[in-house]
Amino acid sequence: MSETHRYDAALAADIEARWQDYWERHGTYETPNPTGELADGTGRADRPKKFIMDMFPYPSGAGLHVGHPLGYIATDVYARFQRMNGHNVLHTLGFDAFGLPAEQYAVQTGTHPRVSTEANMKTYRTQLRRLGLGYDLRRSFATIDPDYYRWTQWIFVQIFNSWYDRDAGRARPIEVLVAQFAAGERATPDGRPWAELTAAERADVLSGHRLAYASDAPVNWCPGLGTVLANEEVTADGRSERGNFPVFKAKLRQWNMRITAYADRLIDDLDTVDWPAAIKIQQRNWIGRSEGARLDFPLAHAAGGVREETVTVFTTRQDTLFGATYMVLAPEHPLIDAVVPESWPADTRQAWTGGHATPRDAVAAYRKQAAAKSDLERQAEAREKTGVFTGAFAVNPATGERIPVFIADYVLLGYGTGAIMAVPAHDSRDFAFARAFELPMRCVVEPTDGRGTDPAAWDDSFNAKDARIVNSAAGELSLDGLDVASAKARVNAWLAERGLGEGTVNFRLRDWLFSRQRYWGEPFPVVYDEDGVAHALPESMLPLELPEVDDYAPRTFDPDDADTRPETPLSRNEEWVNVTLDLGDGPKKYRRETNTMPNWAGSCWYQLRYLDPFNAEKLVDPEIERYWMGPREGMPTGGVDLYVGGAEHAVLHLLYARFWQKVLFDLGHVSSPEPYHKLYNQGMIQAYVYRDSRGFPVPAAEVEVEEHDGGWVHAGEPVTRELGKIGKSLKNVVSPDEIFAAYGADTLRLYEMAMGPLDVSRPWETRAVVGQYRLLQRLWRNVLDEATGEPAVAEEAPDEATLRAMHKAIDGVRQDLEQLRFNTAIAKITELNNHVTKAGGRVPREAAETLVLLIAPLAPHVAEELWHRLGHEDSVTAADFPVADPAFVVDETVTCVVQIRGKVRARLEVAPTVSEADLEALALGAPAIVDALGGDAVRKVIVRAPKLVNIVPA
């Protein structure tokens, strides 16, 4: 008899296409919201909810390779499982489609970025559909859709029109701050009444408070890309993450987000979310909260006395104030130009000058040298300390001593105040610098390791925080004999009494650089008037659409020319840049902002658009937002129920999205102060890279195993093998289309979920895919007759052994799917399938349907087909996931060990629920125990049902 209904790749392709069409035609995965869709007849809106998300994909031109879908398949399995458990599941996927790759492609080919991006998205959608992913496609969008970035721009305007009220501990509308200035409740910086300030002066004052503001600030300028970069986009060796170009420090006027205002909340609220410990640690370290003091050092005149200028430093060791023997400023510090003298002071040492004739020459040369280094490179512990004397002196406020002021690249303007009081005896970097420049060192914290108190004899600084303060008394301030904590408290009080500073908290986190000199990004909804004052566009003028330009490329420069400055593509469209608008006070001429937003902007809030994608009146309906993301039991700060993506986004997207969510929460637009409650980082699928004798990759598909020695050869020549990323440059790309054609999408889904724990990286091995293919074939044969395609199940109850195998599998698979342990869930399904195969004869219908329901979240196409052929009319996605009967989950019997005086004398097979009394009687009556006792009386019987009985003879 021919097998015309055998499960093979051709049949799999037919089944998968039919069911994908069915799901789309019937809106199987369309999820109702709690408003407007309650009468849709599904009843799903009354169910408990689950909001499940993947991190935004960027649609590259190459399409998906087999490594990309790992997280998408995982969330799809989990979403299907939750649907079958009665949840109203929101699961969809959009595209993060602005950014540099499409722009670079446009520059190379002349193709508009939108054209190439939309073509890429079409390819992605086709491949994702082929995987059978159960997305609510009505809710999908791309960040390049004007209807989407209208709201990105709207959020920017909300942030621009807000300030952080530290007294209230939240963001508030800027109008509240204006009212405080106008009423005299808050003083202006120079003390003048608000009414006397010009419009430009008022704008400048408000800019110092706004959560989105433009300022002249040191930035990472990359001439080779023609744009500035965020710190996170610069590698440790001071080069651009994209393109590997040199990056320099430059001062430019850029837009920033005042994320530092939220530093405390960003740290504290990590305790409320269910995230991997490693990600929380990364965010805490990046934010870098440290307690210390800010204090002012007066600058000294060359002839004696002090100047009006002071240098403010932040230190976590204010207890060592008496040990500060010099000061170091960051090369970019704004006070340097004002304090550098024209000639070297008489007491300048040769080692301090860097070989330059004047302080100005020395400072200029050193600044240029420092600009070519990244922040990470500048702070590397092992590198040689460099710097030059500025020719200026400061005064230690505790001792009255004049101390030299240096600039050195190991001090960053972006951390603290950009200036440090150097205490070389008790800080390793200061110690190394002092040794290099022959600077004095003073011990003020008594060593506890027997090294003595003369730093000249030390090999390194002494940094203990549990020692006693010494050599620290002058005037009214004495710290001698105090421990470190007590000394810090006394210094804080002394500073506050004299107006020289105060105890404070500092953060490593810097404000978020938000400008990019690119074309393919969201335009800023900002215009400038004739005085250069920035005005946000009103909501009625949004979206501000990206205009057409003839040249998409930002102007790039010699990658090594640090003195260049950016020229943006938008600045070339004069008609768009220079406009006449009525912003409420009559038509006026304005100039548009010609930078664009970074590619992170659209992904800061996309979870909210998934909730309410067609709302043209507001960001999101409040009732819908509360239903899907609002706080509830176990989720005190609300958010998405499950968010799956790569750990590489720990201090970029994840930190930025938390900041935006908190601002929107403070302003009353959302009910949840956190965007993502549970975060799960999936591992990476890797592939073998084969290299020839020159070290160049060769096509992995063309490599053969050398039969004699087990090595690998390509074109007859030996090659080496290593595990690495999947990529075109490594010639090891495997397209999912290849696996679809050979085995079907369900096999690919099962293989990727079975490869190992989801959070662990694993190697791709095409030859191993066949194992999951065979599982589906065995399941198919257990349910259907391959000759007729009709059900081949027995209409009779399973025997007890099969019932026990079924319910143990149900219990195990249910727990595994809930905990995202997909590989072990598949192992349990395989075990049950093997059990019914080995049992012989026709598989009982109950066992067959259980198998279909268990595998449905993992292999939905074949499950739908088998469910349908078993006689069910509704989709398997609407079926209830099986629930285990506890009576069949427990073992039928357990082994009880019977001991006499601690020595095993018998083993009994008993029911797991046996009582202590019954177990004692069984043990005493066992023939082996009766023989062992030999008629002796029993003094005591210790029973630990059901597994142990210990008998103590008299």
Report the mean per-residue pLDDT as an integer.
92
* Overall strand count: 35
User: Which homologous superfamily in CATH is the superfamily of the largest domain?
Assistant: Valyl/Leucyl/Isoleucyl-tRNA synthetase, editing domain
State the distance separating the first and last CA atoms: 75 Å
Which outline best applies?
Answer: globular
If you had to describe this structure to a student in words, what would you say it looks like?
With 954 residues, the chain is α+β, with helices and mostly antiparallel strands. The chain folds into 6 domains: 1-30 and 743-889, Isoleucyl-tRNA Synthetase, Domain 1 (Orthogonal Bundle), CATH 1.10.730; 34-153 and 601-681, 3-Layer(aba) Sandwich (Rossmann fold), CATH 3.40.50; 170-209, no CATH class; 289-507, Isoleucyl-tRNA Synthetase, domain 2, CATH 3.90.740; 685-724, no CATH class; 891-953, Ubiquitin-like (UB roll) (Roll), CATH 3.10.20. Strands 8, 9, 10, 11, 12, 13 and 16 form a 7-stranded mixed β-sheet that branches. Strands 24, 25, 26, 27, 28 and 29 form a 6-stranded mixed β-sheet that branches. Strand 24 (685-691) and strand 25 (697-698) form a beta hairpin.
